[in-house]
Amino acid sequence: MPDYTAIKLLGIAGVLSYATARLATKAGVIGYSRYTLVAVPVSGMPKMPRGYRVEPISPEALAKFTIDANVEEQARRFAQGLTCLAAYNARDEFVGVTWVGTGPFDESMVHLRFVVPETAIWDTGLWIHPDHRLGRAFAALWAGTAEWMHAKGRVWSMSWIADYNLPSLLSHRRMRSATVGHITTVRFFRWQYMAEGIPKFVRIDRGAPAEMHMPLPESSLALA
Q1: Picking from 29-33, 162-166, 181-185, 217-221, which range would have the lowest pLDDT averaged per residue?
Q2: Can you give the three-state secondary structure of 134-192, one letter per residue?
Q3: Counting CB atoms within 10 angstroms of each CB, which of 22, 29, 34, 113 has the fewest?
Q4: Is residue 16 part of a domain?
């Protein structure tokens, strides 16, 4: 369980979510997850660190590296129109990737399709090579995301985060993220319920997934 400091930062809802998810996993036939929906303004993203560059990488080039997503998952993301942005340091070493896109994205972890507004993008799957996690790869990938967004005329980057994933929540907060909602999914055998989805009940082994239309933040931080 999270320690006392984490409890203060996560709040009761986050701690209960963590405990419930652990119990559901042990039960096997039941699944439970709760996520925070966040939007990061392009104005809150860092500048490109000196010596780094970020650029789109093709499926063939990406296949030469080992990342956290297997070949099948990579193909699924590319097939949905996501762009994989790869980061390289001053020694031209491959240090990490992130995935961005403007169209709807079907999430494999739950039977759910995310739809973002016309002024936003969807980001997912940021990964940094273990040997480079103490460097500036994280900042470089977000700076590359900002450059990609500027080229597309988008001002918000949207994603979902498990509401007990404290490191990710804090890193997004440092970029002035706005919380735009929460979603809770409950799976029982082949059925999934999500109060925020359309429709609320879906059968995960057939048919279209539930849809979640991401709302824009009320703040104008992205234009600052």
Answers
A1: 217-221
A2: CCCHHHHHHHHHHHHHHHHCCCEEEEEEECCCHHHHHHHHHCCCEEEEEEEEEEECCEE
A3: 29
A4: no
In a domain, 183, yes or no: yes
Range of the domain at 45: 31-223
The secondary structure of residue 54, as a DSSP letter, is E
Residue 74 lies in a domain: yes
The pLDDT assigned to 7 comes to: 45
Q: Which of 171, 92, 185, 81 is nearest to 126 (CA)?
A: 171
Predicted TM-score (pTM) of the model is 0.84
pLDDT band at 224 (very low <50, low <70, confident <90, very high): very low
Span 158-180, average pLDDT = 93
Residue type present at position 55:
E
Number of domains in the chain: 1
Tell which residue, 100, 143, 99, 138, has the closest CA to residue 120.
100
Q: Is residue 198 in some structural domain?
A: yes
